[in-house]
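Narrative of activities, Objective 1.

The group set out to show that a structural description can be obtained from nothing but a protein's sequence at a throughput compatible with the screening campaign. Below is one input-output pair from the validation batch, recorded exactly as produced.
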Amino acid sequence: MRTECDAAVLGGGFFGCMTALELRRRHRHVVLLEQGEDLLQRASYHNQARVHHGYHYPRSLRTALRSRINFPRFVEQFAFCIERSFDKYYAVARQFSKVTARQFRNFFAHIQAPIEPAPEAVRRLFNRDLVEEVFRVTEYAFNAVRLREWLRQRLFDAEVEVRLRTEANRVQAHADGRLLLTTGLRQRPEGLLAREVFNCTYAQINRLLAGSGLPLIPLKQELTEMALVHVPEPLAHMGLTVMCGPFFSVMPFPARGLHSLSHVRYTPHAAWSEGTGIYRPAYAEMAAHPRRSHYTWMIRDAARFLPLLNECRYEDSLWEIKTVLPRSEVDDSRPILFQRHHGLANLHCVLGAKIDNIFDLLDELNGTVHQERRSA
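Output recorded for this entry:
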């Protein structure tokens, strides 16, 4: 392995892999560092596998509109891993919802996202005392295993150097103007010189910054549980979400041939904030926390709205750290974070909130590179 490169990307999740591929178009030698045993092993796999079309965000016009724009791009580029063999429905609760059914329908009609009343047979599945209206929409899921295999091959074909089981512990300015990354085990540190570094480590973005004595980025961390279930046959080819507030989603999870169940109230098991002077290693916190499933509470509440869910059979749970920007707590927005030159020249921090955000990142990255080329 070489000890210098043009660009180093930290984090082998979806955003890290795609960033490395994009950089390889401009640089001869790109190195991708991943702490785990393989690519797409953490948050890129442990999620709802939803390809968003905007319907989840009726309180954030920008997020909904960006998803509306990015959805067809994602479906076209990643068609090999898209699961379309189900119908997707959104139901609006009568009480405690932060939007009404009329607001929900009008909002998505306004941004030209496909929406129509659900068939009567589907509406009858819901408890109409608790659900105001049900809509059929266009939304898909992705198979993370197929996506991982595709990324592996693309990285290999592009001659991106992938280093698994490699930690990046510290970054500092080198005398020649490049960045020096300290990698490997703390007992046997190694050095990697790079002209630019992209920190795409999601829940561990502040880990590198804290280890380097650089300013931390304000983030909210949540330890989350995504239950995996066998749904009864009438729901086998459906995805269902009750909106908008402390409610739930049941989505196909193609990588396992199951459905995921998440609940806004019961999916989070713990939460904490990071920021100025405050850092708690996310995965150390996760390892120390007891994993007592909230599935019973999830299904008990969800079945009030959709009684057929009582027939679900629990398989297991996916545990992960979910990282969001603090401002997203207000309007449920999900923008990308692209923090350029964070604390050091050519150290860039990237946080993607959902998979279709990748095009926002690539557009930003292209704009940054083009601007830097012009200024040079």
